[in-house]
Design brief:
The chain is an alpha/beta fold and about 425 residues long. Helices cover about 35% and strands about 25% of the residues. A hairpin with a 2-residue loop joins strand 16 and strand 17.
């Protein structure tokens, strides 16, 4: 598929544009890295043609919060009492692996995400300078951030700064770009957060931080004299449209309103929140207050599946229960939270998140033919509540085919999985 243009033919095209335009049947014409046209199938397509009939085309899914190297730990942190997951389970496991193992885990995590139809990720973890190459090689669009903590700031902040220099902070100039990743409000004091805020302002970097993700975090922040986690961030100038706050579970009504009023982006990870904390974040209130909410999988050890289709379904069901309202968070909103709203959260809505001429050709084809998807009455609820990552047939990033016929084009999945599985052997027992 190396011609001047490539036409994708499908049974249906969901543009997710402002008007919710759907073409059935439909076609997307790609020229270079961008979409040239979207509409009904042309009478005679120029250039190459990819016959994806039997599928629906939609924008690639966008995962606004993940930790790809933690693929290694899947299945090792199950049914942990609240408050013990991070320090009691994860930290001891993390001490048993090194950079080569984490790099192998990142490759496997990226592979899994691509096969599940994710084309963009916000990935943050330690050792990101060493892991970033694996993310870049995968073909994903990604913003990467190196995790920062109070107890290691003088050693780690220069690494984060070097990452900004290496990849830049502008997603319009590079498929992979860098952000800043202070860990959380209980592990980052005001001095570190103010340094992050100043560095973000100087470089244009987005800031990615865990917010009110546990009862312990809230308790520690209050012990230090702050009214709450969001209030603390606001005090140091880290609530606003260029900040992505992950989880936001334990927010008071007043704090949720504050987060929304500042236009802060929120990474909603419903499976992880349910599994690790037994809680649902106040997503309805946050959205009503003005927060931009995108969906995230978190790590493979937090939800066991890097599948954003599953995350849409869980988000819908849990938020209906939390709202005591079966009409809450309709399917159309959930699909936007995995596409255009997620793009807005990352500051890339002008690049991706919808299928429109001029945007980058990040596109996925999802089969409409599996028994669990039939009858196909309406694409949106089928994609949100019935589809699975395994239904993804093809993935394009910047117009480049990354997955075709459910197989990676440029990656060796058997080798990647074998290497990552070997890397995880040190964790057995």
């Amino acid at each position: 598929m190396s011609g001047a243009s490539l036409t994708l033919l499908a049974d249906e095209v969901l543009t997710l544009d402002a008007a919710g335009t759907v073409y059935a049947p439909g076609a997307v014409v790609i020229e270079g890295p961008r979409i040239r046209a979207v509409g009904p199938p042309p009478a005679a397509a120029s250039g190459e043609v990819a016959d994806l009939r039997g599928c629906v085309l939609l924008p690639g899914l966008i995962n606004v919060h993940t930790h790809t190297p933690m693929w290694l730990f899947r299945g090792l942190t199950e049914d942990v009492p609240r408050g013990e997951w991070l320090t009691g389970r994860m930290r001891p496991l993390e001490r048993r692996v090194g950079v080569p193992e984490l790099r192998a885990g990142a490759r496997a995590g990226c592979l899994e995400l691509l096969l599940n139809g994710v084309t963009t990720i916000a990935d943050r973890y330690g050792h990101m300078a060493d892991i970033a190459g694996a993310v870049e090689e995968s073909g994903l669009r990604a913003v990467i951030a190196h995790s920062l903590y109070d107890d290691s700031v003088e050693r780690e902040l220069p690494i984060a700064e070097a990452l900004l220099e290496r990849f830049g902070t502008d997603p319009r100039r590079s498929r992979v770009w860098a952000g800043l990743g202070p860990h959380a409000t209980d592990t980052c004091g005001p001095d570190l957060l103010r340094r992050v805020q100043a560095l973000a302002e100087r470089t244009g970097a987005r800031v990615f931080i865990h917010l009110a993700q546990s009862e312990q975090e809230v308790a520690e922040v209050r012990r230090q004299g702050h009214a709450g986690c969001a209030s603390y961030l606001d005090e140091v100038g880290l609530l606003g449209p260029t900040v992505v706050a992950a989880h936001a579970i334990y927010l008071t009504d007043e704090e949720a309103d504050l987060v929304g009023r500042r236009g802060t982006a929120v990474a909603h990870c419903p499976s992880s929140n349910a599994k690790l904390e037994g809680r649902v974040a106040p997503i309805g209130r946050l959205r009503r207050a003005g927060a931009i909410v995108g969906l995230g999988t978190d790590a493979a050890c937090c939800n066991n599946a890097m599948d954003l289709f599953a995350e849409m379904r869980v988000a819908g069901l849990l938020n209906k229960v939390a709202a005591d309202d079966p009409a809450a968070l309709p399917a159309s909103d959930l699909l936007r939270m995995a596409t255009i709203d997620a793009a807005s959260a990352l500051g890339i809505a002008d690049l991706v998140g919808t299928l429109e001429p001029g945007k980058r050709a990040d596109i996925i084809a999802v089969s409409r033919q599996a028994p669990h998807l039939l009858p196909w009455h309406d694409a949106t609820p089928n994609l949100v509540y019935a589809a699975r990552g395994s239904d993804v047939v093809a993935v394009f990033v910047d117009g480049r085919p990354i997955v075709l016929e459910r197989r990676p084009v440029h990656l060796d999945p058997e080798r990647i999985v074998a290497e990552a599985t070997r890397a995880a052997l040190s964790l057995a027992g």
